[in-house]
Design brief:
89 residues; mainly alpha; 4 helices
């Protein structure tokens, strides 16, 4: 069942902050923070924002969220395994 996020502010917001573009940016920020924390996948983030994976990667760059969540050692291990497996063919 879908859940809804309700944000409450202690003061009345000016009308210009209720603009659709402002609401879109707020949704974007929330989804990007959930992605950064590992609470949702890249696929789910793209789905929630109604964008494709390419647009998501661009957005992740804007928010300084790495596309690959690996330590330097893990990445080196993956690359070396890939190099060795190609040499076996």
């Amino acid at each position: 069942m879908p859940r809804e996020v309700l944000l409450r502010f202690p003061v009345e917001l000016p009308e210009e902050l209720k603009d659709e573009e402002v609401l879109k940016k707020g949704r974007e920020a929330i989804v990007m923070e959930l992605l950064r924390k590992g609470e949702i996948s890249q696929g789910k983030a793209a789905e929630l924002l109604e964008i494709d994976r390419h647009a998501l990667f661009d957005l992740m760059g804007k928010y300084d969220i790495p596309a690959i969540d690996m330590t330097e050692e893990e990445l080196e291990g993956e690359l070396s395994r890939d190099i060795f497996s190609k040499g076996e063919k």
